């Protein structure tokens, strides 16, 4: 074999191995990334926590987002929720349908349009005694201007949005 041919063979062998490794790594990572954005409840894919580890009951009691503690965790609907204290954890465990963010923590404006857009716990509103999380302040303001109309549209779209999300 000529030196030029040996060099080309080494080049193509290393190229094939590099591409194979890239495909293997990508195929291993892509399902995990997809799962992070296709959950029925918004979950931080780094930590596995619902609503980024914020205490959902604190929005009602303290009227502000408060990070929960690993000492007060509760598993519900396949995800881990954190709380500031055992009282909040127990209140959630007794009535999760009241304290969970509506639409799994997805922005109701997006859901009303048939799109799952993760809400941000720092941008929130309690409306109709339910917690809503929004992507940004603009969407919160849009919602506040027509909460009943948007909530009704989001409730109609939610089954289709849920179906598009992974089980």
What does this structure look like?
This protein has 2 domains: 40-99, no CATH class; 101-167, no CATH class. 50% of the residues lie in helices and 16% in strands. The chain has 7 helices and 4 strands; from the N terminus they run ααββαααββαα. The protein has a two-stranded antiparallel sheet. A hairpin with a 2-residue loop joins β3 (120-127) and β4. Mean pLDDT is 83; it is low at 15-38.
SSE diagram, text form:
Blueprint: H1 3-37, H2 58-61, E1 69-76, E2 79-83, H3 86-94, H4 96-99, H5 108-112, E3 120-127, E4 130-134, H6 137-145, H7 147-164
Antiparallel strand pairs: 1-2, 3-4
List keywords for this structure.
2 domains, two-stranded antiparallel sheet, extended, alpha+beta, 7 helices, single chain, 167 residues
Question: Into which percent range does the helicity of residues fall?
Answer: 40-55%
> How many domains in all?
2
Strand content: 15-25%
Shape: extended
Structural class estimated from helices and strands:
alpha+beta
User: H/E order of the elements?
Assistant: HHEEHHHEEHH
Over the alpha carbons, how many angstroms does the gyration radius reach? 22 Å
* Quaternary organisation: single chain
Q: How can the largest sheet be summarized?
A: 2 strands, antiparallel
Strand order of the largest sheet: 1-2
Parts with pLDDT < 50 across at least 5 consecutive residues: 15-38
């Amino acid at each position: 074999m000529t030196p030029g041919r040996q060099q080309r063979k080494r080049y193509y062998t290393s190229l094939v191995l590099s591409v194979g490794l890239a495909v293997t790594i990508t195929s291993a990572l892509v399902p995990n990334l997809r799962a992070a954005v296709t959950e029925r409840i918004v979950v931080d894919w780094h930590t596995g926590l619902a609503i980024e580890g914020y205490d959902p009951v604190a929005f009602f009691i303290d009227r502000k987002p408060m990070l929960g503690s690993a000492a007060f965790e509760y598993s519900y609907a396949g995800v881990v929720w954190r709380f500031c204290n055992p009282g909040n954890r127990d209140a959630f465990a007794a009535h999760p349908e009241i304290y969970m963010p509506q639409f799994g923590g997805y922005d109701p404006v997006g859901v009303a349009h048939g799109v799952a857009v993760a809400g941000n716990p720092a941008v929130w509103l309690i409306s109709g005694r339910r917690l809503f999380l929004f992507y940004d302040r603009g969407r919160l303001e849009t919602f506040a201007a027509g909460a009943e109309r948007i909530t009704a549209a989001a409730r109609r779209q939610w089954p289709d949005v849920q179906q598009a999300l992974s089980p």
